[in-house]
């Protein structure tokens, strides 16, 4: 009796199943449409002109954010900022005739600046390209017709010759061959003797090499200081000095014969008196004075005009405190007349009067990166520093004040009228310079 009802039940089951499938398909379709809806406006936005411009704007903003901003710095004693480099500047050098400043940066260029433009609104420079490499150190030749650079990737010296054009500019030509590779450790400094007789390169191990101008090694100096932190040629070209882990500065004499032939390198003298490693040192313009700064937190001024061949040691003239040197590396620059000592740690510069040992000026956050080089121009009027993409030049007010003090002291002892007139003229010039800078002390 129940068998006749089964077809009806089966038909009902099939109908319910069919409806369930239709409902499931409808729901799935709704989900798919719901998932597609968010993506549809995005595609439309991409195709809209206004939104397209907005995206380009965001891309430009992203590029601008990635490009490092030029560090801004102002100070009443800031004379100029040289800003043509697009990379960080690592080294500077003033030419011996005082007309040019050479700078090198990791933008693969060396720039030659005219010093007569320093106080002008526009600062002209000429560019020399360093192909397939960049220079970390640069030095002018004594005749100012060439310069040498240390190549970062090739680890060697390259010579560039400068030729003046009819329009007053220069062309720069690299010599066909670079110097051979001899150093096994990173280079810390290079130099050319003012006599033009030799070139010095120093590495961070204990090696200092003396070269002739053709790229041949004349002598190898082992400083025995565990490591070298600084090395330099004296302005008189007689000496090469180095400092490092030991608490002294070692100086050698580079000897040549009467006919200009190289003879030997002899130990000359040492600066002894620091109690910790020496960060840096410098010679005065006449090589008769030296200054040094140490991790012991002091700087020292020395009289090096001694008969070292008779075992006479340099005299200590003055010691000053500089605590910053005990905690971080320090760079040093001595003015040509030895009246001013500049010390740089991090991005800050401190200027000391060496006659009294007192700090007179302080420049804070001068660069966006740690100061890489610090030097006075050959007249002592300006102090130059670099570290980021700019060279900053400061008026040397402590130098003018030192001249005022010295001239006033000499005037009291002057015996002749002509001497008094000459001293008074120098005194007046220094006072007027300070007055124009608003730095004349009452």
UniProtKB/TrEMBL annotation:
Residues in coiled coil: 413-440
Compositionally biased spans, kind Basic residues: 52-65
InterPro entries with a match to the protein in the record: WBSCR13 (IPR042410), WD40/YVTN_repeat-like_dom_sf (IPR015943), WD40_PAC1 (IPR020472), WD40_repeat_CS (IPR019775), WD40_repeat_dom_sf (IPR036322), WD40_rpt (IPR001680)
PROSITE patterns (UniProt xref): WD_REPEATS_1, WD_REPEATS_2, WD_REPEATS_REGION
Alphabetic keyword roster: Coiled coil, Isopeptide bond, Phosphoprotein, Repeat, Signal, Ubl conjugation, WD repeat
WD repeats: from-to residues: 82-114, 180-214, 271-303
Signal peptide (from-to): 1-29
Protein name: Transducin beta-like protein 2
């Amino acid at each position: 009796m129940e068998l006749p009802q089964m077809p009806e039940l089966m038909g009902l089951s099939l109908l319910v199943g069919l409806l369930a499938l239709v409902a499931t398909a409808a729901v799935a379709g709704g989900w798919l449409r719901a998932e597609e809806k968010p993506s549809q406006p995005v595609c439309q936005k991409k195709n809209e002109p206004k939104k397209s411009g907005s995206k380009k704007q965001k891309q430009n903003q992203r590029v601008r954010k990635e490009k490092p901003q030029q560090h801004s710095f102002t100070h009443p004693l800031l004379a100029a900022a040289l800003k043509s480099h697009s990379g960080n500047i690592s080294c500077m050098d003033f030419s011996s005739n005082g007309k040019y400043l050479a700078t090198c940066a990791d933008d693969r260029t060396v720039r030659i600046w005219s010093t007569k433009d320093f106080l002008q609104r526009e600062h002209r420079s000429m560019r020399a390209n360093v192909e397939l490499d960049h220079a970390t150190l640069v030095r002018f030749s004594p005749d100012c017709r060439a310069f040498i650079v240390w190549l970062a990737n090739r680890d060697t010296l390259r010579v560039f010759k400068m030729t003046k054009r009819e329009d007053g500019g220069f062309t720069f030509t690299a010599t066909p061959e670079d110097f051979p590779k001899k150093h096994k450790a990173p280079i810390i400094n290079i130099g050319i003797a003012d006599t033009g007789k030799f070139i010095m390169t120093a590495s961070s191990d204990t090696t200092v090499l003396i070269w002739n101008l053709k790229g041949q090694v004349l002598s190898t100096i082992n400083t025995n200081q565990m490591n070298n932190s600084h090395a330099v040629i004296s302005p008189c070209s007689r000496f090469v000095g180095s400092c490092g882990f030991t608490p002294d500065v070692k100086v050698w004499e580079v000897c040549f014969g009467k006919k200009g032939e190289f003879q030997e390198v002899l130990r000359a003298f040492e600066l002894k008196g620091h109690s910790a490693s020496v960060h840096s040192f410098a010679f005065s313009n006449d090589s008769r004075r030296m200054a040094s700064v140490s991790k012991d937190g002091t700087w020292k001024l020395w009289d090096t005009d001694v008969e070292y061949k008779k075992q006479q040691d340099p005299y200590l003239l003055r010691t000053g405190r500089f605590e910053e040197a005990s905690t971080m590396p320090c760079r040093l620059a001595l003015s040509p007349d030895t009246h001013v000592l500049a010390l740089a740690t991090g991005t800050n510069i401190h200027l000391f009067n060496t006659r009294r040992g007192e700090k007179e000026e302080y420049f804070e956050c001068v660069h966006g990166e740690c100061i890489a080089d610090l030097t006075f121009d050959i007249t002592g009027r300006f102090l130059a520093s670099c570290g980021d993409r700019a060279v900053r030049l400061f008026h040397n007010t402590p130098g003018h004040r030192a001249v005022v003090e010295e001239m006033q002291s000499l005037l009291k002892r002057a015996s002749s009228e002509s001497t008094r007139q000459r001293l008074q003229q120098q005194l007046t010039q220094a006072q007027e310079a300070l007055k124009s800078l608003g730095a004349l002390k009452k």
